[in-house]
Amino acid sequence: MTPPISLLPPLHFRWLGQIEMRLGSTPGNAPVKVAKPSRKADALLAYLALNPNITHDRSKLMDMFCFKVRDPAGDLRGILKRAREMVGKGATEQYYTIPNVNGDNAVRFEPTPLLHIDVVEFRRPFAPSASIDDLVNRIKLYCGPFMPGYEGLDSVGWLEQTRAGLESQFGMLIKRLLDMLYNAERWEDVTTWAEHWITCSGWRPDAYRDLSLAYSELGDLSGLEDAYKRYAASQHDLDMALPEETQREYIFRRKAITENLGKPRPARRELRPKTQAAPAQPIKTSRATQAQATQAAARANHLVYWPHE
Q1: What is the pLDDT of residues 67-94, one digit of tens each?
Q2: CA-CA 20 to 30 A from 61: which of 14, 41, 207, 238?
């Protein structure tokens, strides 16, 4: 007898920064990984799963994934068979998503409630009112580039195009999250998610800026120095010179932290003109505005950095 669907484990496809298919846990049973029979089956399964409920022409799939083989139709059948072996066994396979060959030339992939695909969940639209926690839960799904190491397995560049689109979406989401964390003055969280950005996408000027700004707000000299050294090393590896602006900002921030070690710490630090009296209330500035003010101070010394009130 087939067990009720409520008692069956979900099937997770993870293709962001990893290649993994896992049957989720059920009461009394730990999650188990599903064997991956071939890289070609992985790539074809990903293509079908991310283009569901569409009848695909077999010849198109053969052109995309099978390349030069004696019997391309037979090769495609073999790949689909191996893909089906990944996702369902015995009486329960009707509940799992299985790519099927319908007739001579049609291949169709139909999702079921038991299937969870990290890419699909990551792509879901976001409401303008999304909270910090909503963004964090979404960004956690992105652990790196889509299907890493699978370049060149399709003839039309679908893998590369999908990867670029997902990375662009990740960049927009992480910037939005960091803006919200900055405005909430959650500096430790800024460092956490700036590091996640760097881990997933490599060193970028915006990621370094956010990391160094957060360490400045925290008065963390060792964190600031480490971030600067790592960023400088990444630029050296790319045979790129570190911009003078970045070097000046680092010297300026380092000096500001050093001069104020051991002094009482306020909830917020600001940049104010040297000739202007300190206002009664802190000035709210965006992180981009504060970064620009830091650059101006480092260049001309027309501003002083007031890390304490």
Answers
A1: 555 555 556 666 666 666 665 543 355 5
A2: 14
